Amino acid sequence: MGRQSYYRSLGNGYFESTALAEGAWDITAQHMAAACGLLTRELERYSAASDADQPAGAPKRFARLCFEILGKIHAGRFRITVETLRAGRTIELLRATMIHGEQAVLSVRAWRLMTSDATPIAGIEDPPIPPPDQCEPYPEMRKWPGGYMRATTYRRAPGARPGCGVVWMTTDVDVLAGEKPSSLAKALSMADTTNGVMPRGDKDQWMFPNVDFTVHLYRLPQGEWIGFDVRQSVGADGIGVTSTVLHDLDGPFGRAEQILTVRDMRS
């Protein structure tokens, strides 16, 4: 039996989601994390092709990706477009858009920045977190519905409380059928899940979906595990923010922010 995947390619920029991409809030929609992984894959392919057509210059890498939900991310068939918004030898801005029918449902604007040797001043101020083998199984995450959640594994560090804690996540599902994902696409096919791992309220009593997902990367992630050092804050007027330091097994590699619309479902 071959490896499982969130998506299948239909050719000419068209794709189809599998049951493993089912959303946690709505199983007739795609989970945003899976969709983020595929959009990242398309950005990487586009930028690699663009670089190959240009004169050799300073290497660039993705440094910030801002995903915006523009509508329901429907399961099934869709297409993706990629374009350059700001070209440059050392800095460029790309955009990828997922389109269902004629409606744009998810987009990402991504900055690629020139890399250089900053070894003399290099350093990371975000503190380390306990590795997965020092954390406990987190079966509570199985309470979320959808194929995406059934295909993922979680471990939680001691001392967690509602709205604050450390969780590790992994999956053996590929982003696209027949293809091993890059480390960045793999990480971003999981990272949006951070909003649901340490909620302030019970998911059966409160809704708190995010409408965006912004990642800043001070280095590229590696490996099969992603760690979330999460702080979730909710204002009294029903708007919240999930703030996360992102980790791999080598340490922190970036930060993520998500704005939330919080709704009381108890009545």
Describe what you observe in this structure.
By secondary structure, the protein is mainly β. Helix content is 13%, strand content 41%. The protein is built from four helices and 16 strands. It has helices spanning 32-52, 147-150, 183-188, 194-197, and strands at residues 5-11, 14-17, 60-69, 77-86, 91-100, 103-114, 136-137, 153-156, 164-170, 174-176, 206-207, 212-217, 225-234, 239-248, 251-261, 263-264. The strands form two sheets. Strands 7-8-9-13-14-15-12-3-6-5-4-2-1-10 form a 14-stranded mixed sheet. The protein has a two-stranded antiparallel sheet with strand order 11-16. Strand 1 and strand 2 form a beta hairpin. The longest helix has 21 residues, at 32-52. It is globular.
Summarize, please.
By secondary structure, this protein is mainly β.
Describe the strand arrangement of the main beta sheet, using strand numbers. Answer: 7-8-9-13-14-15-12-3-6-5-4-2-1-10
* Beta strand %: 35-45%
Q: Nearest-angstrom radius of gyration?
A: 18 Å
Uncertain residue ranges: none
Helix amount, in percent?
10-25%
The largest sheet, given as strand count, sense and whether it forms a barrel, is: 14 strands, mixed
How far apart lie the N and C ends?
46 Å
Q: Specify the number of helices.
A: 4
The count of β-strands is 16
The helix-and-strand class reads mainly beta
Which oligomeric state applies?
single chain
Shape: globular
In round numbers, the mean pLDDT is 96
What are the secondary-structure elements, in order, as H or E? EEHEEEEEHEEEHHEEEEEE
